[in-house]
Amino acid sequence: MSGYDTTKAPPANLQQFYENTKARIQKIQSHLANSPRGIRLKDKVCIITGVGSLKGIGRASALLFAHEGAKHLYLIDFDTKNLPDLKATIERLYPDVKATTMQGDAADEALISGVCERALKEEGKLDVFFANAGIATVNPLEGITAESFMNVMRVNSLSCFLAIKYGSAAMKSVNESRGKKVSGGSIILTASVAGLRSGAGTIDYSASKAAVNSMAKTAPYQLQKTDIRVNSICPGLIETGMTTDTFTYARSRGADAKIGQLNPMGRFGVAEEIAQAALFLASDDSSYVNGQNFAVDGGLSSSHPVMPGRWA
Ligand SMILES: NC(=O)c1ccc[n+]([C@@H]2O[C@H](COP(=O)([O-])OP(=O)(O)OC[C@H]3O[C@@H](n4cnc5c(N)ncnc54)[C@H](O)[C@@H]3O)[C@@H](O)[C@H]2O)c1
């Protein structure tokens, strides 16, 4: 079909559409408070990195994993500031869930191998590794040095490699006496739509996330017949600590209603929506999903570029 029918277009009034978006987001963000505890991660031992940001994907995932009955969450961030609050919140809302917070670098080999070993020692198994920590960059090509390029690759890509290497070794480990009879687990990597194609990030950030997407596809073939699944999530534009400046700038110019208008849903996303994708991949609900780059982006990456407002 060519052209578009304006009578079928979404609300013509941008402000009204934005009000609807805000109401929708408020509903999404109140999901945990308004829904009963689940059992989708019952008894699962999980590691999550990058949990320290109050509005971040890692924290939202930690809370959702606890809500869904995870047994023990090992929660890592470089920045210690909000870790005590995260631990206290989980312990207050979900007293049956163990929360261990750790300060450290997700790209530190000793830390990552150590936390995997610790899970084996304390719980006898590791079920889920959500390698979510990451950094964004803002410099155009001329401002990127060889050193800064390698740092982005280290934090964003090496961290995921270490999660695969040490996470899968722990997931293969069998411990009959503690109920772990066969190999298995789920490794989830946070990539980005910037790792799928151009137009969503700087060259170093995009390259680092493309590497993550590649590892999500190659790792399953290194882990054949282990029942260890590896997938990446590719978020679109999500309001978190990482994107605060973008949102603040847009709001300062009165352009709030236009944020996210390039995807067919016409809005930005929130961390809780990415957490739901991580929950699906962490749980047995996704038992046959492997080697995928799972875009959670309102449809942004599904199309060639289109003019805003043009829907076909
Ligand atoms: N927000 C978005 O629009 C968006 C889009 C695509 C992908 N992502 C990815 O989502 C992931 C989570 O980011 P977010 O949006 O929640 O941002 P955020 O900045 O709110 O949270 C990221 C967290 O990772 C931590 N971190 C950074 N480097 C670390 C390291 N080396 N070791 C341990 N912790 C470290 C930070 O301290 C922070 O708490 C990142 O990998 C990011 O690249 C975000």
Word description of this protein:
- This protein has 312 residues and is α/β, with parallel strands linked by helices.
- It has one domain (37-234, 270-295): 3-Layer(aba) Sandwich (Rossmann fold), CATH 3.40.50.720.
- Helices cover 40% and strands 14% of the residues.
- It has 9 helices and 9 strands.
- The protein has a 7-stranded parallel sheet, with helices on both faces. The protein has a two-stranded parallel sheet with strand order 7-8.
- Helix 3 (57-67) packs parallel to helix 4 (83-93), helix 3 crosses helix 9 (271-282) and helix 6 runs parallel beside helix 7 (203-222).
- The protein starts with 13 loop residues before the first helix and ends in a 16-residue tail after the last strand.
- The model is unreliable at 1-6 (pLDDT under 50).
- It binds nicotinamide-adenine-dinucleotide.
- Nicotinamide-adenine-dinucleotide (NAD) binds at residues 49-50, 52-53, 55-58, 76-79, 105-107, 132-136, 155, 190, 192, 235, 237-238, 240-243, 271.
